[in-house]
Design goal:
With 419 residues, the protein is mainly alpha-helical. The protein has helices spanning 5-9, 14-18, 21-26, 28-33, 36-49, 55-62, 75-91, 111-116, 118-125, 129-139, 145-155, 160-179, 185-189, 195-200, 212-222, 225-238, 244-263, 269-273, 279-284, 288-293, 297-305, 309-322, 332-339, 359-362, 369-393, 399-418. The chain has a domain at 1-91. It has 26 helices and no strands. Helix 5 (36-49) packs parallel to helix 7 (75-91), helix 21 (297-305) packs parallel to helix 23 (332-339) and helix 22 runs antiparallel to helix 23. It is rod-shaped. The termini are far apart.
Length: 419
């Protein structure tokens, strides 16, 4: 079915009528009679009405409108450009496209094309701004984000799309530099932080998966006491209350509170006796202890040293359990354990003094000659008496035996002096 130029301009749903190769071929001459502005409008309407799932087939139909000769100002040239605009924008959403940002970079970017079909581009982007901005933030390398953002602002100045891309890039940048950096607390005080934007681009936070404990520990270490409630409120504002990040941060903040209140307070034993004490949490957020306890280990240990032995034994056991760096001499728990031993305990058994005998006692005293002579006389008398008794019991010996016995007695007697 053929149409006049006026009829073509007045079509309510042009894609239903001209959305195939036969119709475009039949109306090619009338379509080429339209002014350039009319061609641009009709081509834009045709492409806009084409469903995304039919876009590939429509590309083949467009070729039916091509003129064999010069095709510079024909309807086909306008229709093909309109098709390129929609195709490139839709390709930004295609998950198979691993580098969607390349379409917007200078070497791939046709600024004139998007300028000519600006209204069409805005219409195609409608309701897709957030999804496309999210994909660009996820896939664009950090060094390319500025150029991509600038090109989008040049083509779509002050547009919703440009604003969404800017927000998405800012959130991704702050996640990488701040939330995953050494000062995650600055993420929540950044001027770019907005709970609505975090909710809108929630999938950008997928990069923190399995890093929640590290983030929570650093937040507990760096966030001041007066700001912790507000930070936790913001986290729960864009994450579910039972999300991993919210749970970890709440636990880390509670541990930091107990360290400040008890372990660094007047009664550090309350930290270990608290019902909230958890070995697992202490190990998970071990980053808190070295910095917070630095310079306080001796004082904490001395306070614990005043407790009775049973309590100290239990605390020592817990110190050993939460000491993940037991081999390090600089471990704060090792220093506390050393300092909590009372002064009198290094030697538990009182030493018994050993009294050595004097030299005089070890070396016998020499007896005087008079005392020695008296002892020899006494010995002689006792020997004589013994002899008399023996003589009464034994037969009388011969003279030679008596003389031999006298000789032996004299020898023994003289031997006493020789000793």
């Amino acid at each position: 079915m053929t149409f006049t130029c006026d009829e073509l301009k007045g079509l309510e749903h042009p894609y239903e009528v001209l959305g195939n190769g036969d119709a475009l071929a039949e109306n090619r001459e009338e379509l080429n009679k339209l002014t350039n502005d009319e061609k641009l409008v009709l081509a834009s309407r045709l492409v806009l009405e084409c469903p995304v799932n039919e876009l590939k087939d429509f590309a083949h139909a467009i070729e039916a409108a091509r003129m064999p000769q010069d095709d510079s100002d024909t309807f086909h040239s306008f229709l093909f450009q309109a098709y390129q605009v929609k195709k490139r924008i839709i390709s930004l959403l295609d998950p198979r496209n691993k580098n969607p940002h390349s379409m917007i970079l200078e070497k791939e970017f046709d600024g004139e094309l998007f300028n000519n079909f600006n209204k069409l581009a805005i219409e195609v982007l409608n309701n897709n701004e957030v999804a496309i901005a999210l994909r660009l933030a996820e896939t664009t390398p950090p060094q390319e984000r500025s150029r991509v953002s600038q090109n989008i602002n040049n083509i779509f100045p002050q547009s919703l799309f440009a604003a969404k891309v800017s927000h998405a890039f800012a959130i991704r940048r702050d996640i990488e530099r701040l939330l995953l950096g050494d000062r995650p607390d600055l993420f929540f005080s950044s001027r770019e932080f907005k709970i609505d934007s975090c909710i809108e681009f929630a999938s950008l936070f997928n990069v923190i998966k399995d890093k929640e404990s590290s983030i929570a520990g650093k937040l507990a270490l760096r966030t001041s006491a007066e700001n912790r409630t507000e930070v936790l409120k913001k986290i729960k504002g864009f994450c579910a209350e039972d999300s991993e990040l919210a749970i970890k941060v709440q636990s880390a903040f509670a541990l930091r509170r107990d360290i400040d209140r008890y372990l660094l307070g007047d009664n550090p034993e309350q930290f270990f006796n608290s019902r909230d004490f958890s070995v697992d949490l202490c190990l998970e957020f071990s980053i808190l202890f070295p910095e917070l306890l630095k310079g306080h280990e001796q004082a904490i240990g001395e306070k614990l040293a005043t407790l009775d032995a049973k309590v100290r034994s239990d605390i020592s056991r817990k110190l050993e359990m939460i000491n993940g760096a037991a081999h390090e001499q600089s471990s704060p728990f090792r220093k506390i354990a050393s300092a909590m031993v009372p002064k009198e305990e290094p030697c538990l058994i009182k030493p018994i003094p050993v009294v050595l005998p004097s030299t005089e006692e070890m070396i016998p005293k020499q007896e005087s000659p008079t005392r020695l002579r008296n002892r020899n006389v006494l010995f002689k008398e006792q020997s004589e008496e013994q002899k008399k008794k023996n003589s009464q019991l034994e037969p009388i010996a011969s003279d030679s035996e008596e003389e031999e016995e006298k000789s032996n007695c004299w020898t023994n007697f003289c031997g006493l002096f020789g000793k």
